[in-house]
Amino acid sequence: MPTSRPEKDTVFVLNGPNLNLLGVREPQTYGSATLADVQQLCRERADEEGLVIEFRQTNHEGVMIDWIQEAREKAAGIIINPAGLTSTSIATLDALLAVALPIIEVHVTNIHRREAFRHFSYISQAATSVIAGAGTHGYQLALSHMARLLRAD
Fold first, then answer.
1. Fewer CB in a 10 Å sphere around the end CB: N or C, the chain?
2. Which residues of the sequence carry a binding annotation for substrate (predicted)?
3. What is the residue-averaged pLDDT of the chain?
4. 10-152 CATH
5. Where are the domains positioned within the chain?
6. Which residues are known binding-site members?
7. Secondary structure string (H, E, C) spanning 74-93
């Protein structure tokens, strides 16, 4: 069965569990920007970089895996903030390993300065790059870096 070629300029920006509460949940830790604010920042940076984004959030591991598999056919790269799936989901890791795309892992906080259980990331084993602790600006950094990676191809 023939597969469609991924769009050279499309990047999936995938957000995991509880990121829909960004700006409300623990603002002293995660800041006051909402996920809608992050989406707007990403759209602006994507436009500057000549990229198109598919910006999504889910609280369900299976949905995240479905999106990662979809990206395999429809995207040139993935930016993922796996949130709570970071240190728990081998299934998400396996899906990322199967896509053969550049992957940038993003965390709003510096996971290495937080609770010990947050220090380990399954996702990092598939990631081309990791950005942690830059706040929501990390998404913009990830888009700029993704554009650089895609131009190098």
1. N
2. 81, 94, 108-109, 118
3. 90
4. 3.40.50.9100
5. 10-152
6. 81, 94, 108-109, 118
7. HCCEEEEECHHHCCCCHHHH
Q: Exactly one of 107, 122, 139, 145 is catalytic; which is it?
A: 107
Annotated binding site for substrate: 81, 94, 108-109, 118
Q: For residue range 84-124, what is the model confidence (pLDDT) as tens digits?
A: 999 889 999 999 999 999 999 999 987 777 667 666 789 99
Catalytic residue check, 137: no
- Entry field: residues in the chain: 153
What is the enclosing helix (H) or strand (E) of 62?
helix 61-74
Q: What is the pLDDT of residue 3?
A: 47
Per annotation, catalytic residue among 30, 122, 139, 145 = 30
- Residue 25's identity, in one-letter code, is R
Q: Whose CA is closest to 46, among 79, 19, 18, 71?
A: 79
> Angle at Cα 55 formed by Cα 64 and Cα 147, nearest 5°?
105
Residue 119 designated active-site: no
Q: Which amino acid is at 142?
A: A
Q: Do 24 and 37 touch, CB atoms closer than 8 A?
A: no
